[in-house]
Amino acid sequence: MTEDLFYSSDSVRSAAPLKHVQYVTFDGPLELTRGGRLEKVRVAYETYGQLNAARDNAVFICHALSGDSHVASHDEDDDPGWWEIAVGPGKPIDTDKYFVICPNILGGCRG
After folding, report:
1. DSSP string, 37-78
2. Count H helices, E strands: the chain?
3. Rounded to 10 degrees, what is the CA torsion of 70, 4, 15, 109?
4. Do residues 57 and 99 lie in contact, with contact meaning Cβ atoms separated by under 8 Å?
5. pLDDT tens column, 64-110
6. Structural domains present in the chain
7. Parallel, antiparallel, or unpaired for β 22-25 and 42-48?
8. Rounded to the nearest 5 degrees, what angle is found at the Cα of 24, between the Cα atoms of 84 and 30?
9. What is the pTM of this model?
10. What distance in Å separates the CA atoms of residue 27 and residue 93, rounded to the nearest whole number?
């Protein structure tokens, strides 16, 4: 069994594990606004493009509750993302210019 158990079930995808998903685990609990807290938070995310030296070219994309981190394909062998028309080289959110980060939302159906 692999470490990556993140699967996509969208009809436009092959339903295989996403190739470029990464994970971050928070160092401590996540304190919530209304006093609750989440222990051992692990978030799946994907990035596109390169963060520049000034670290000022980041674009953070949030998806709908039923979406996921796979906003666009990474290469021609990758499955299309849910916002393929807008994210990628030469597109409105140009990944030759911007560093795009798209995490899965906490509580979403995809982790």
Report:
1. EESS-EEEEEEES---TTS--EEE----TT--S--S-SSTTS
2. 0, 6
3. -60
4. yes
5. 888 889 999 999 888 899 999 999 999 999 999 999 999 999 887 77
6. 1-111 (3.40.50.1820)
7. antiparallel
8. 115
9. 0.81
10. 31
79/96 Cα distance (integer angstroms) = 20
Radius of gyration of the chain, Cα coordinates, nearest whole angstrom? 15
Structure tokens at 69: 């981190």
Strand-strand pairing, 30-31 and 99-103: unpaired
High-pLDDT (> 90) share of the chain, %: 67
The single residue listed with the structure tokens 């795009």 is: 100
